[in-house]
Each structure stands twice: as structure tokens, then as C-alpha cells.
Amino acid sequence: MYLFSSPFILWNVCDPGGTYNPPRSVFDLYTPRFVKGKGPGKLGLCPICVEPFDRGGENRKNWLAMKFSAFKW
């Protein structure tokens, strides 16, 4: 398994925080790209919401709880 650093380093964009979590494939929209916390307090950054408006996103950081399946819905 390869260790990836944040892709934001490649594009000189501000890192959203958390730890980079590489997706299983480029089409995987269910795996959060960034996570922070542990256990019941673990949060995942929505990969769709964080995208800019011109790419179909909401251009905002939307951290969702992972423990209670809020991230998937």
C-alpha cells in the first residue's frame, strides 16, 4: 500500500484539515478524502460539497459524522 500525501500540495490549494484518506478509485464518492477524530467523534469531509461551484460542488467544508452513517446519506 502506498502512502499518499494530500493532493492539495500538488495544486497549491489550502489544505482543508484532517488526514488525507485516498479513495479506492477515482469514481469512489463514498470514501471521504479527509478524516479527523476517532471513535464516535470521527468526521469525514464530503468530497462533493468541498468541490468548487464550477465543478458541481458547494465550495464549502461539510464535515459529517462517520459513526452514525451521516456521511453516507
Fold blueprint:
Blueprint (H helix, E strand, L loop, with lengths): L7 H4 L7 E2 L13 E3 L6 E3 L17 E3 L8
Antiparallel strand pairs: 1-2, 2-3, 3-4
Description of the molecule:
There is one protein chain. The protein is mainly beta and 73 residues long. The chain has a domain at 15-65. Helix content is 5%, strand content 15%. It contains one helix and four strands. The chain has one helix at 8-11; strands spanning 19-20, 34-36, 43-45, 63-65. A four-stranded antiparallel sheet has the order 1-2-3-4, with no helix packed on it. Strand 2 and strand 3 (43-45) form a beta hairpin. The longest helix is centred in the first third of the chain and has 4 residues, at 8-11. The chain is globular. The termini are far apart.
Structural class: mainly beta
Please state the CA-atom Rg, rounded to the nearest Å: 12 Å
Can you give the mean pLDDT? 76
- Give the topology string: H per helix, E per strand: HEEEE
Overall geometry: globular
* Oligomer classification: single chain
Extract low-pLDDT stretches: none
Main sheet characteristics: 4 strands, antiparallel
Rounded to the nearest angstrom, the distance between the terminal CA atoms is 29 Å
Share of helix among residues?
under 10%
Tell me the total number of β-strands.
4
Number of helices: 1
- Order of strands, main sheet, comes to 1-2-3-4
- The proportion of residues in beta strands is 15-25%
